[in-house]
Amino acid sequence: MRILDEDRDTTVDNVLILFTKEEAIQLISSLEDLIADETKGNHHHINNNDYSKELTIALYNEKNIDDWFSERCKRLIQYDK
What we know:
Blueprint: E1 4-5, E2 10-11, H1 21-36, E3 43-47, E4 54-58, H2 65-68, H3 71-79
Antiparallel strand pairs: 1-2, 3-4
């Protein structure tokens, strides 16, 4: 697991995320999509009702790092920094 605070461009080791039921359902659905077909897309966005907050989730492995991720994300995945 890798966590990046994109606003501050820094890694994070501990996060608390609180969901509404609707947001949790959206997260479950997005995770199921990612797991079902890794070739369909590498990430999903989970938003609150007014889109003022966003959680981006992605699957990574050794095969897709170069194809799908930015240089910043590659560094985070490879070195956890």
